[in-house]
Amino acid sequence: MSAGKPERTPQVKRLERVIIELLDSRDPSSTICPSDAARAAFEGEGDGWRALMEPARDAARRLVSAGAVEITQSGRRVDPDRIRGPIRIRRVR
Question: Do the domain assignments include residue 59?
Fold first, then answer.
């Protein structure tokens, strides 16, 4: 994925809603993993949710751009265009 705001496909729109719903259902200081959103959005059996991992990360990046969430690594906020490896998503603090 290139730097900048990811395309807002119907799949990414759905994952944005799922991310917000998951965060709304948890303690305000909680974080979620993109895999939580991918699993919640997947409508099937097995591990097909894995195909939604990059779209879930894209949805998180879009939500960062909108000012709704932060992406963290090791508990620290990170630039969404420079992330590599595991991330967490939390409400803006």
Answer: yes
Query: What predicted TM-score, i.e. pTM, was given to this entire model?
Result: 0.90
* DSSP H stretches of helix in 30-70: 34-41, 53-65
Q: Which domain holds residue 29?
A: 10-91
Residue 14 CB burial class (10 angstroms; 0-12, 13-18, ≥19):
middle
Residue 19: the pLDDT is 98
C-alpha–C-alpha distance, residues 92 and 28, integer Å: 10
Q: Is residue 74 part of a domain?
A: yes
Residue 78, both tokens: 């990170």
4 in a structural domain: no
Question: Tens of pLDDT along 39-82?
Answer: 999 988 999 999 999 999 999 999 999 999 999 999 999 999 99
Q: Which residue has 């690594």 as its token pair?
A: 73
Q: Is residue 1 part of a domain?
A: no
